[in-house]
What does this fold into?
Amino acid sequence: MATKRPVLCPNCGAHIKKNGYCSSCHMPLPVLKKAFNTSDYYYNIGYDRAVARDLSGAIDSLNISLRYNKKNIMSRNLLGLVYYEMGEIVNALSQWVMSVNYQSSGNLASKYLKELRQDPTLLANVDQIAQKYNQALAYAKSEDFDLAIIQLKSVLSANPHFVKGYLLLALLYINSDNYERARTTLRRVLKIDKANTLAIHYLHEMGDTDENIIEMSKESVENDGLLEADEEAITLSTTGAKSGSKLKLFFGDLIERYKAKAVSRGEYGEISFAKYSGIYVLLGMLLGIFLLYFLVVPAQKRKIINEKDKLIKSYSEELADKNATINSLTNEIANLNIALDAAQNPQNESDNPLPDYSEIQNGMSDEDLQNLINNE
Amino acid sequence: MINFEEELKRFQPIPEVSQAEDAIYSNDLKDISDIVFQVTEEMKTANENAASRYAGRVRR
It folds into this structure.
């Protein structure tokens, strides 16, 4: 005979009494079952929306699902995944952490968190992106629209799926009457989140019909040049609705550090730095030529002269040595010639006359004569 | 027509990683079971109070 399995409370795990209430937390089982079923129903809707890339719709459904059952692990994990896809990493993390807290074993969120932990640079980047976005928002609120746009572009370059960043960027473009850029930005939003209500609202306000919007979301965003640092982007007007002043900026992120100097506002007309680029190039070339002729060339000349002097000196010394050698050799030749002459003409020796003994011979004895010779 | 100021109010700062803990705690929403549990507890307390109020009375 099969034993009847006890019914457990889905809330606390205690036994359910015969009257349908939990013995521990006193919760009515039918109400809990109904709530949990409704939670699953909204999870399914959320899942379908996420598959269809209606991410903001999926977030709504999944949040409703969690209102019925906050321990619905599937809903929480999917909500985290949707946040992650929309570039809101911290929200995704918080959903996954809570999911793991409710169910630690056999939970897909553990895998997601593990993957995030394995990449320490990711969290640092996430933090930086969040800081930059918040700063851009602060700039926008203080009407520093150019700085806000530059900052947002930096954020979106680092995280191209950050929907909130695109929406804020589009709003800033609309504010500066740059509708084409705003459309390009919103097109990117629709690529990530097909039915983003805010993006569609902005497009409607710009005069786009539903058909246009559907067509627009099909277009490619690969080469739209939205995040490129083109002339238009860096010379963006800072037109506030009130001030009407304009400012051009060159230095991307560096400008942030020098905000106090860069944001000085004045009643200037729109300056296009592009038309001065030729002059800048010319000035640069002139400066280069100046440096070349007044600094580099004299130094080179001095160096060449010094080298030449050294060479002349060394040649002179060598020449003197050679002359000395030639003189000594000439003298030697002369001596040798004399010796040679002497050897070839021995008769010349008679030119050196011996003492004339002819006179002495007369009246001298042989013995005296011999003595005289010996003495000589 | 888009009112920039009004639209800008829709945008709120996003939490940084250092604020993730706060985001988790603030996200701890009440679901149906929490509400039912709260209601049950309130009813239980009310019943106990009522019981203690009538405990000293003598039925005539």
User: Anything to note?
Assistant: Residues 277-344 of chain A form the longest helix (68 residues). The two ends of chain A are 171 Å apart (CA to CA).
